[in-house]
Structures are given as structure tokens and as C-alpha cells.
Amino acid sequence: MSNEVVSYDDLREDRDYESGGVQVGEYLQQMENKRKANLLLVPTDDDAVKAKLRSLGEPITYFGEDKADRRQRLVDLVMNNNIDLAANDVEMGEVDDDDDIEDEEFYTPGSQELLSARQFITTFSLEKAQARISNQLKESSVSMTKQLTIRRGINDRVKTFELGGSQLASTRPISYVTINQNNTDQILSGSWSGNIKLLNKKLEILKEFNGDEGKISGLDWSPTTPNLFVGSGNTISLWNTESEEEHPTATFNGHDNRIVRTKFHPSGKYIASASFDQTWRLWDVETQQQLLLQEGHSKEVYTLGFQNDGALLASAGLDAMGYVWDLRIGKSIMILNGHIKPIYGLDWCDNAYQIATGSADGSIKIWDLRMSKDIFTVPAHNKIVSEVKFHDKVLASSSYDGTVKLYSADNWVTLHTLEGHSDKVMSVDLTNDYIVSSGWDRSVKIWAPE
């Protein structure tokens, strides 16, 4: 008998004994591979496995592949290519972290002006929120009996609203009307002919503004400067009703398509705009500089609105989706997903945590930020809901069915239906004393208690 000592490598490399149908060399090779695989620093966490695959230039997942399959693919890849994970672990970890940030945390660096705006909005909204919460606490201390009496009084008064006047204010459909809440004797109307008109409560035309050749689709009064307003069509224009100039005091350029809505921030320092270019943007009123270009919608952005405190903005559009954006951090914090057709109208309730959206599906949905979902669906109209507006304890809606409807903002019961337009109603706004609406019949109508 030979005293020669047979080494592990000799058996693996030089001999091909058969044992049970399996060659000894192959068997030993399999055992060695298994031993090496057990020693490999292959992570077990699925996110770490994906990161390793990405750093090696491999797809992070295949169709139908589960976590175990993915890890085994990484093991096979390392074994077949003699990759030493132990030697490259630190380096690969660094690459993985960078790749994760680039692929999964995509962002566009903001300007110093945007940072300053976010800081201002944070401070401003905190002060507004404190004042709002203080008022809500006072209201909550009022007895339920008194609260019900007040609400019944509001509801009973709303039911008495009737048509009080009408004015043909353009040669084309009047797409938007808005009341100056700082001076409720002033009303703005904008039409598809490109002109904007200033009216009083008697619907007398006081002044006309012509500066946009496109369809006027959005108007909003400044909350801090009573004579200042913004209009939108092909461009965004800032106007002063007391100016003798025939041109806007400022314009904002940047959108690549029609601008549908423009809204002032509650501070009066910023303007937000919604456009058919599938973005909404934030502008500085003083410098006319674009501070933020926000993407996210898959189709045209049609409407938007600021929360009363100014911390949040909600946008919605023809993709039937809505988003709530936190302006302080630049992220979407809630998705309004429930309508089956495009959203045309949106407004915030005074309580700052509820939003109403009106859709081409004929419904109005009420969304609650505290529960991150819609809490009520109002079967409002049988055609497109073109606009929704809150005021005090009342919600108003306009529709292509030719009507304006009023609802209780407590239980969403329909209080009154206003009929008088001969065609589609495109816009509505309201204050304590009256309601104003406009539509395809080229008229502005006013509704007041009998």
C-alpha cells in the first residue's frame, strides 16, 4: 500500500473517480463552491442585494424573480466572475449609496430664492396656523345648541338666494369670475375673447383690461393689496385696478402652454399657476422670478389652490388625479385618487384640513388630510362640475348642466339650486351677501337673498 498522501487539490484537479454516478472531481468542486458561497459576504437584505447588483451593472430584478432567486443570482454572478465582495465591500457600499440617491431620490437642486421662500412660508404658515387653531378652540367652546342655531340660520338664508341681475360682458364665453374679498363691491370677469372686466355689485362695467390674446381662464385678487389682481391665459399678468396704464404692471414668463389657473399665496408674496404643459409653478410677485417648477401630473394641470395657512398647495387636472404638496419641504404628502374623470374645480375649506374637488364625472369629493382619504362624495351634477368654492359654512358648485348648487359644509346636504343660465356655467364665487356666476351664455349673473 502506498504511503502517498493525497491532497484535496490532487483529488479535485487530477483524478476523476466515479462514485454513485458522480465523478469525484465534480463532487469536490461542488463542495468547494458551496463552501466558498457560504463564506461570501453576500447580503441577505433584499435592498442590499439590489444595491450590489446595481453596482455590478446588473438589473436589480427580473420578471417573476423573488428575493431568494435574486440573492442566488448575485451568488452565481460573484462565483462565475471571481468577484471578491470582501475586498470591494467598502467601495461598493459607497457606490450603492450614491446610486440609491440618484435613482430613488431624484431631485432638482433649488435656488437660494426658493430656499428663502420656503423659510418665509414656514414662518408665515406657523403664525397663521396658531391663529386658526386659537379661533377653532373658541368655536369648539360654543354650545352645540348655539352652533346648530347659527348653522340653521346660514342654511335658511342660503335657500332664499335668487337671481338678482345679469350682464352680457363679452362676445365669447366668460370662463371665470371672482369677488374681491377685501372690497366685495368689486367683481372680475375673464372671457375667452382675452379681455378682463371690472364690475360692481350692480354688474356695471367699470373698467376693461386687455393684455392677453389667449383665453382668460384664471383670475385672483391679492389678499393683501386690494387693487391688485392676477390673470392668466397665454401669459400670467399682474394688474392694478387703479393704474392709468393700459398694460399690466408685470408679467411672468416660463410656461410652455396655456395657463389655466393662477392663485395668490395667502401672504400675497407669491403666485401659483397651473398649466396645460403638465406643470404647476411658483412665482415671486416682486421679482417675477420662477421659484419652482413642479412636475408630477401625467396630463394637463387644470386647477390649484393654497391652504389658508399657506403651508400646503393642492393641484389637480385632466389625469383625474390631485396632489397635496407641502411647500415647506417640496414633497407631495397626499394623493387625491378617486375621481374617474378629469378634475376641473378645487378649493380648500376654511378649516384648513378639508379639500373639495369637482370632476367631469359629475361628483364632488371631500378629502380630509387628517385621514388621508376622501370622506364624502356628493352626487352633485349630471354633467361636468366646472368649479367649487367654499365660503364660511357653504360650498358652491357650478356645472355644465347649467346650474349652480349650494351645499352645507357640515353635512354636504344640498341646500339650494340656482337656475338662470341658458348654457354651461363655467365659474362661481360667493361672499356673505351674494353669489356671482358666469358661463357660455356670455353673461355674468348675480344671486342674492330675496
Can you describe this structure?
By secondary structure, this protein is an alpha+beta fold. It is built from seven helices and 30 strands. It starts with 7 loop residues before the first helix and ends with a strand. The N terminus is likely disordered.
Top keywords for this entry?
4-stranded antiparallel β-sheet, repeat, 25% helix, WD40/YVTN_repeat-like_dom_sf, 36% strand, alpha+beta, WD repeat, 2 domains, 450 residues, Methylamine Dehydrogenase, Chain H, disordered N terminus, single chain
The portion of residues forming beta strands comes to 35-45%
Strand order of the biggest β-sheet: 3-30-29-28
The dominant shape is elongated
- Report Rg: 32 Å
Query: Helical content, roughly?
Result: 10-25%
* SSE class: alpha+beta
Top-tier CATH class of the largest domain: Mainly Beta
CATH architecture of the largest domain: 7 Propeller
DSSP strand count = 30
CATH superfamily of the largest domain: YVTN repeat-like/Quinoprotein amine dehydrogenase
Which whole number gives the mean pLDDT? Answer: 87
Helix count, DSSP H or I runs of 4 or more residues? 7
- How many discrete domains? 2
Characterize the biggest β-sheet: 4 strands, antiparallel
CATH fold naming of the largest domain = Methylamine Dehydrogenase, Chain H
Terminal CA distance reads: 122 Å
Annotate the secondary structure layout:
Blueprint: H1 8-14, E1 18-19, E2 22-23, H2 24-39, H3 46-55, H4 67-80, H5 85-104, H6 112-140, H7 144-158, E3 161-168, E4 174-179, E5 187-191, E6 195-199, E7 205-210, E8 218-221, E9 228-232, E10 236-240, E11 250-252, E12 259-264, E13 270-275, E14 280-284, E15 290-294, E16 301-306, E17 312-317, E18 321-326, E19 331-337, E20 343-348, E21 354-359, E22 364-368, E23 373-378, E24 385-391, E25 394-399, E26 403-408, E27 414-419, E28 425-430, E29 435-439, E30 443-449
Antiparallel strand pairs: 1-2, 3-30, 4-5, 5-6, 6-7, 8-9, 9-10, 10-11, 12-13, 13-14, 14-15, 16-17, 17-18, 18-19, 20-21, 21-22, 22-23, 24-25, 25-26, 26-27, 28-29, 29-30
